[in-house]
Amino acid sequence: MIRLLLPLLLALAFAGPAQAHKLKVFATVEGGEVTGYAFFIGGGRAAGAVWAAKDPAGTALASGTTDGEGRFAFPVPQPPVDATVTVDTREGHVAAATLPAGRFGGAAAAVSPPPVDRPAPAVEAEGEARLAALVEAAVQRQVTPLMERIEQMDSRLRYADILSGIFLILGLAGMALWAKGQRA
Amino acid sequence: MAHIPDGLLSAPVLIGGGLLAAGGVALGLRWLDERMIPRTALLAAAFFAGSLVAVPVGPSSVHLLLAGLMGVMLGPATFLAVLVALLLQTLLFGFGGLTTLGVNTVNIALPGVLCGMALGPVIRSTPRASLRFAAGAAAGALAVLGTGGMVALVLWLSSSDFAPAARVVIATYLPLALVEAFVTGAVVSFLARVQPEALRPVTS
């Protein structure tokens, strides 16, 4: 039996450690929108899954279903509050990601409509706010790929972990055999 | 899919699952002897590694469970193999969760053990290879469908928010059940030819 199962086991262990099985949600702020996507660690996006965004009190901010690439998007909450996006594939996979209210600061400025009738000193503040929003957007554009990368690396399967798991099981078997031998 | 994470299930479901799993593991421990220990460990390792290889299907991704095969080859010791493998997956990769360990163990192991009890005698005694393959395939498929049903049941019992949609469950579990049926049938047929003893869980 060992001759049969060991190759099978090895094939499984090395066939696709890049593939795995856990749903995760990536969310970020772009302009006046919260965007992101749900993905399975290592491979595949959760397409057509139900998503909902809620504030800490549990009030719904937005909801919908993810598109073909598992993406979702909704406007930045006004006033800024912590937003938790939950994605549910409707068959037992649920994952959530939370964006703290602080992340919405610059974006909120970008979308706030300019006051219609503003006094003269406000013009300067307006310009500053727009500059801040531009900087925010530029930084966001640069940082997003990095954050995606971090999220993926964070949840990557590692050969070392897989191997240690398998050898822990074999070690347990050895301990059990030894204990049986002692008792007999 | 069968790894339900922390924070989705209600306390009664978690406790019930934990108690059932503890009972199953106690039963499994009584069945362990020198011949069963290496076999249990091998299948636990196969299950551990097998569930790390997931294939995207529709809105989800699926992986082999091997529960039917374990049920036939290990009997009640399946609980033990599944528990150890799930614990390691939780600790090393963050699949599932510690609080849901009991529920997940029962979801995967119980259908497998039942299939092994129901179809095991046929698989062991029949002289016809085609019937053996069919019985093995049925064990594999039914165990997967049983797991799907159990996952849906515990989610539904806990909260209607995350109750799975039957359509999606069928769409994702059916292909998996077919694959498992083929894998289980093939392994069972092969073992019956080269080492029939491996299909017989032994009592101590």
From TrEMBL, chain A:
Transmembrane segments: 159-179
Keyword annotations: Membrane, Signal, Transmembrane, Transmembrane helix
Domain of life: Bacteria
Signal peptide stretch: 1-20
The protein's name: Nickel transport protein
Phylogenetic lineage: Bacteria, Pseudomonadati, Pseudomonadota, Alphaproteobacteria, Hyphomicrobiales
From TrEMBL, chain B:
Domain of life: Bacteria
Subcellular location: Cell membrane
Coiled-coil regions listed in the entry: none
Record field: transmembrane: 12-29, 41-58, 64-88, 95-119, 131-156, 168-192
Stored InterPro entries: CbiM/NikMN
Pfam families xref list: CbiM (PF01891)
Membrane topology summary: Multi-pass membrane protein
Keyword field: Cell membrane, Membrane, Transmembrane, Transmembrane helix, Transport
Descriptive protein name: Cobalt/nickel transport system permease protein
